[in-house]
Amino acid sequence: MEEEFKLNKKWTMGFLSLTTAFALVACNDQQGDQKKGEQAKTTEQQNTNSDHMNMDHSSSGEVPTGLQEAKNPTFKIGSKAIMHTNHMPGMEGAKATIVGAYDTTVYAVSYKPTDGGKEVKNHKWVIQQEIKDADNKKFVKGDEVTIEADHMKGMKGAKGTIESSKDTTVYMVDYTPTTGGKEMKNHKWVTEDELAEE
Fold this sequence. Notes:
Blueprint: H1 2-51, E1 68-69, E2 80-83, E3 95-111, E4 120-127, E5 144-146, E6 159-175, E7 184-191, E8 195-196
Antiparallel strand pairs: 1-3, 2-3, 2-8, 3-4, 3-6, 5-6, 6-7
């Protein structure tokens, strides 16, 4: 009887050890999956930022033909706003001065640069007036277009695919990146929902 009790005790202890081992493995797997997800997100953000390292932060302030000034923008010209977007390093949280406000349709586009660089995915933003032969035609996800904007090296003349679109007010802004460096002048474009009052 005593031997049977000892045998049952050993079996129970072995079963508990095995169960604990499985639980630890499952927990480690879950933590591993979580870490992989976080690493993938970080890599995606780094890739997005590196895609935009060649963007011309500053411009002459010229706007495309046919672009209409906003009649009653939320953020008035000369006012200050805080940017909440990460198109490029140093934009998130930066203080911007509004230098232009326009009503238009904006597009996120993926395109292959004309200079042979790697494909730029989901670039924000290209406006209606920066798409070749757009006129008043509204584009939808999947439409192929030719980009006339020159925000980044290899962008002008590139063939692109529309990823998303929305009608909104876009702003041209001056700002100093939170990462340091010189003030960027006449940056194009920031949408209304990417700005907040100080």
